[in-house]
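Re: duplicated header lines in exported structure tokens

Our pipeline writes sequence and tokens for each protein into one text file. With two proteins the header for the second block appears twice in some exports. Here is an export where it did not happen, for reference. First protein block:
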Amino acid sequence: MAFELDGIEQVEETELAALLNEKGDETIVVDVREPEEYEAGHIPGLPLLPMSSIPAVVAEMDKEKSYIFVCRSGSRSQNVALYLKDQGFRDVKNYAGGMLEWTGEVTSGLEWFVKDVHELYKK
């Protein structure tokens, strides 16, 4: 069951896994860790958009979309969600456990590094 922290909905592992299995395009799940962390192990199919690059692309992001952010522990992704909420995004969520809590499938390598934020919307 999701809960809220500082006005941001916290998604738990079972909810994230179910959402990823649906393969719908309503919610965009984004890994916000650094490239070396992502390469070491990430949830298959998730795009990498490092936290540090978000301020440079926020103006190009679609405020009408739903987002869930993932990091190592849930702290950086929470900060990204808070930042975007402050920028006028209405539907931003945090994966509370981060990769430390993820027990599902993990893959390594640089699968999908977002070079153009519009890639996020072309599933």
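Second protein block, exported in the same file:
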Amino acid sequence: MATLDKLNREHGKNTVRLGMPRKINAWELRCEHRTPRYTTNWNELPLVTS
């Protein structure tokens, strides 16, 4: 932690942070727009009803 504190003091606040996920992060946004995985995930197979 001392090293992180030193780097943040020298290079600006939040320059270096622990690798903890935030609520809104890039992965969450990309995940919302991904295509369905029909061929690799049984739960995402489309259902056909008549």
